[in-house]
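User: Look at the shape:
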Amino acid sequence: MPGLNAGLYVGLSGIQAQQAALNVVGNNIANVNTPNYSRQQADLTSNQALASGGVYFGTGVTLSAVQGIRDQFLDLQIYHQTALQSGAQDRYSALNAISPTLADSGTTGLAAQIQSFFQGFQNLAARPEDAALRTNVIGQAQNMISSMQSQYQMLTDQQNTADQSVQNLVTQVNTLTSQIAQLNTVVTTETSPGSRNDARDQRAALTTQLAKLVGIHVTEGSQGEYQITLDSGGAVLVSGNTQYQMDASSTSATTGYHLVKVDQGSTAVDVTSALQNGSLGAQLDLRDNVYAGYKTQLDTLAAGIASQVNLQHQKGYALDGTTTGLNFFTGDPATGLPTGATAANSYQGAVTNLTVNSAIVNDPSLIAAAGAAGAAGDNANANALGNLQFTGGTNASGLVLGSPFSTVVSSFVSKVGTDTQSWNVQSTTQQNLVTALQAQRDSISGVDLNEEAASLMTLQQGYQASTRFLSVINQLMQQLVTSFGQ
């Protein structure tokens, strides 16, 4: 059977194991307020027994591993929901910033400017020969155009800002994926599964940051390595120790804005339209869909006003009673649309190209207020032009106008407000969900000082018991030496 020397090793192993486990508890306590720290647990394993005389005797205890306490499923959920929340928050912040500018308030709003323009024709109908009223119509038209173009330019500026953000965010994505790939290398070379808890914690923190920038799908391989793909499945960002670069150097031939591509080794995959979540997905959506959609609505409105006014103005006669067929706004004589604005291109450029006919600006008497030739004091066409603000229908260009222009503006402003509120609600909802998931993860992976205090007491007692055991062995050995020495 094992002798007293073997007992010394058993006692020593107990002291060493309890001391190592105490260090783990101490490390947990030290990191109680450290962000992204996962509570660690000391795994104690009984040493291999030795046989003596057909009986197996234990040889003590060993600290076999220090495991980080994590819930992989919760981590994956947090990555996904973080991307959704970040994207919603960025959209809300962007729309909330521009909604006051697009709001239809007082006499400065677009609807008021449109109403004043058509009211100018109605005022002219009362005194069609009045030069001041004719000049007023031109001034109201120019004010309306200025207001429309100001909003349009603001949306263009927002698109350009979003495009610059895309480039900056792509750089941040590449920095994070490079660091995650390096940490994958550390994790895959750990001596025992889960032994590099610091690297795993750092990787989880970086992955959460990455999820704020772009929607991702994360899987963990057999060696603990992360493989990260876009949540659309369009491209791989990280696979083991390999990082796949994201690039935003090329531009679209159609819009002139930057495309986002991911280098997949032999080819670069265009993922611009596939990115929906995270800050990067939000900026692309704002640039290519939201702001562009608002601009299309303004272009359609401008095309509608220009085409209907021009087609009606062509039917009337100027103050001289003979001049007819003039466009009030510069545009296509056949359709009345601003130059280059067609249904095929969603009337793109209608706002930027909208301007009052220079001939009419130079000579207000050319405003076709009369409805018949030779009738200088006739107001029939001025009335018809003024009443356009209340009519809808389809004009010769095929442009559908189903409601008054003021109603179209109200619908546009309402949509901006609705979109803003919708993203605010979604951002709040997603934030509550992320907070709940993080609280659930903290209940599993976070440090609980009460639990650590209980572990300290248990380990302290184990340490003291081992030292007491060694003391007993030492006393026996001394007694044995003393007995044989006599």
